[in-house]
Design brief:
- It is a single chain.
- With about 525 residues, this protein is mainly alpha-helical.
- Helices cover about 50% and strands about 5% of the residues.
- The protein is built from 22 helices and eight strands.
- The longest helix has 25 residues, at about 90-115.
- The protein starts with a helix and ends in a 15-residue tail after the last helix.
């Protein structure tokens, strides 16, 4: 009797609870939450593209451009100083690219690839993400060497919280294969996700050209370490169709010309540092190359500077503009023969970057350009890897490099006549002197990658041109040798100790002297 009463009481309570739960689940749904059915992974591409042009600029500008002597500085201690000018270490700027990639962009790209697997609706988005993945990872491996790649950003999906470092050779071969496969699967008959693509607005033909042009870049990177492999991939890239004009250039522009939005703090703030902060000046090496060769780009590149004899006067005379020698500080500057002791400010007598061209908050950041592609094809033709005339490719490269300045600002227009005059004074060295031609091509490549510190530094290491005199500033990281890479972040030997140690054991000491795999100066 008691057992029956107990069972009935329990049954009654369960019925009451069940009736009370009606509508409770619906009531507790967040009306603003995005469900799995509503989620569109194309939103991630926009953010990944924009952030690829943000956040990592410190490494490119403050190290890369100075390593190759495009930029110089008298300062080397603050976050906005150009530490590569003196080969000195600064934790924040040394790690900026690493942290921005793994902390943000790589996760977004991996999310797209994971979320779109096997879903034909998102085919083109998936292929775009795979191509973009090579853009972000090749910069990373070029600057640091062996890096986490195959297990990167897999913490959420595979619970890999301490990814292993992969050999740069394996990374490069995989990136090349990924590019080939992604390009082959791009389909112009399917959704192009134009609203999400701030690079090419869904133009599938341009995405194919981008994938092949990246294949060309990566293939050329192997020209000395594995020339036969390099030749194979260069041929594939050119046969597939690479950039043909500046409209193909991969660039991402800022979105706020006035600097009143988040762009000022987190967007294209690299332009502010180039344009307005006193430490950064055009390096004498770069300035002298343009000036000595009567290069029409010079007048659009340099900015006015304070007259050494009158601080109130802004000197615009191009005849007395000059670049700052690398490796000087405010104490050693006075030993420089060109130093004017009457200067109202030590750095003011040296030319800065033209802010109205290169330092607009809504200006572009270049990733890969047709000028670079034409120079790479000139070298490939010179090596006998592809058909075509190396001299013609060279001349097209020079022309496109000069016309490209219009994409920064229309005021920086260089006329066809100016280009023709320059080419007449600097004809291609020809195939009879291969080494001189290689120097000519790759020195022009260096000029065309002004302010793209990642690519300029990589191609100088690969090609050996231009020949730069290393800096030997006191207490520098290399002992006066030209740098080969950057150091891994300080927390890697603590948070990922086993894999970090394996990478150092395989690649070499974690310092600025060790060279990456494709750099045969190793």
């Amino acid at each position: 009797m008691k057992n029956n009463l107990l069972r009935n009481a329990l049954l009654f309570c369960l019925l009451v609870l069940a009736s009370c739960d009606q509508g409770f689940e619906e009531l507790n749904k967040d009306p603003n939450a995005v469900t799995a059915e509503q989620f569109n992974p194309s939103f991630l591409l926009t953010t990944a593209q924009l952030r690829s042009a943000q956040g990592d600029h410190n490494t490119s500008l403050y190290y890369g451009t100075c390593f190759v002597q495009q930029m110089a500085s008298l300062s080397n201690v603050g976050i906005f100083d150009y530490h590569g000018d003196k080969y000195v270490y600064h934790k924040g700027n040394n790690e900026a690219l690493w942290n921005a990639t793994y902390g943000n962009t790589a996760k977004l790209i991996e999310d797209i690839i994971f979320q779109t697997e096997g879903d034909e609706e998102f085919n083109n988005l998936r292929q775009m993400a795979r191509i973009w993945r090579t853009i972000i990872y090749h910069r990373l491996t070029d600057m640091y060497g062996d890096i986490p790649y195959f297990e990167s950003s897999r913490g959420y999906y595979d619970q890999i919280y301490k990814p292993k470092y992969d050999a740069q050779k394996d990374i490069y071969l995989d990136m090349l294969s990924e590019l080939e496969d992604a390009v082959s699967k791009l389909d112009a008959t399917k959704d192009n996700f134009s609203a999400a693509d701030i690079a090419y607005e869904g133009d599938i033909a341009k995405w194919k050209k981008l994938g092949n042009s990246m294949m060309l870049r990566l293939g050329m990177r192997l020209s000395k370490v594995e020339p036969s492999t390099a030749e194979t991939w260069v041929k594939k890239a050119v046969a597939g169709g690479v950039f043909t004009d500046n409209e193909d250039n991969l660039l991402i522009s800022g979105t706020d010309a006035t600097g009143t939005s988040a762009d000022l703090a987190n967007g294209m703030s690299w332009t502010i540092s180039v344009g307005t902060r006193s430490p950064g000046k055009i390096a004498a090496t770069f300035f002298n190359f343009l000036n000595d060769n009567n290069d029409p780009r010079l007048k659009h590149t340099v900015a006015v500077y304070t007259d050494p004899t009158n601080v109130a006067t802004k000197n615009t005379d191009p005849a007395i503009q000059k670049g700052l020698p690398n490796g000087l500080d405010r104490q050693t500057l006075e030993a420089d023969p060109s130093y004017n002791p009457n200067s109202a400010g030590q750095e003011h007598q040296y030319s800065g970057v033209n802010r109205s061209v290169y330092a607009k908050l809504d200006g572009p950041r270049m990733f890969i350009t047709n000028a670079e592609v034409q120079y790479m094809m000139a070298e490939a033709a010179l090596r006998g890897w592809i058909s075509g005339d190396a001299g013609s490719y060279y001349e097209t490269g020079v022309s496109e490099a000069m016309k490209m300045l219009q994409q920064y600002d229309q005021s920086a227009t260089i006329t066809d006549q100016e280009i023709a005059t320059y080419l007449a004074a600097h004809p291609f060295a020809g195939t009879s002197n291969v080494e001189a031609a290689l120097e000519q091509i790759n020195t022009q490549y260096w000029a065309a990658t002004f302010l793209n510190g990642y690519e300029a530094f990589s191609n100088v290491r690969r090609s050996g041109y231009p020949v730069l005199t290393p800096i030997n500033y006191p207490d520098n990281e290399t002992g006066g040798l030209f740098p080969g890479r950057l150091r891994y972040p300080d927390n890697e030997p603590v948070l990922n100790v086993e894999n970090y140690n394996a990478a150092v054991s395989s690649q070499g000491a974690d310092n600025y002297i060790t060279h990456v795999w494709w750099d045969t100066a190793n």
